[in-house]
Amino acid sequence: MDFVTEEVDLLKQLQSSTNKEVAFKELLNLYKERLYWHIRNIVKSHDDTDDVLQNTFIKIYKNIDKFKGDSKIYSWMYRIATNESLTFLNQKAKRLQITSEEVQELAINNLTSDVYFEGDAIQLKLQKAIATLPEKQQLVFNMKYFQDLKYSEMSDILETSEGALKASYHLAAKKIEAYLTSN
Questions:
Q1: Where is the RNA polymerase sigma-70 region domain (predicted)?
Q2: 124 and 108 in contact (C-beta within 8 Å)?
Q3: pLDDT tens sequence across 122-170
Q4: Residues 147 and 124: beta-carbon distance below 8 Å
């Protein structure tokens, strides 16, 4: 049985009232770790990531009946995770009465004391470089560099053309390189 057939079957189970709970547990097992790291690359903190991941899965559970299958379920879930992450960062900025950029800076400064952060000085410097990018370039860079997503998958998730994504990634890589060489 190929992946597409499995996804169609899983979706049918998710949208049926009798198998929804079992199918949702399977969905959780399949995607929890990948979504965790996707969210973690955006919000940085382990604790914040757990909160956003939980909100993401609640939203997926509540809205699975509305999923029409226009894209892969995986892309749809990533889009929800991305939107939840950005909403979380914006709400945090509003709550702390600071800009989104300052929230990113705060998160990166807190990475050094985060017991779940296993990176070294180079990783920390890379995170600081990524934080200097505009939001869209950060997303594209993280998805390509850390998660090795194909441009076609990113296109489904971010609802942007592959050409625009390639350009964003190229620009992001150039800016990161410039940051790393000058700092």
A1: 29-94
A2: yes
A3: 788 888 899 889 989 999 999 999 889 999 999 999 989 999 999 999 9
A4: no
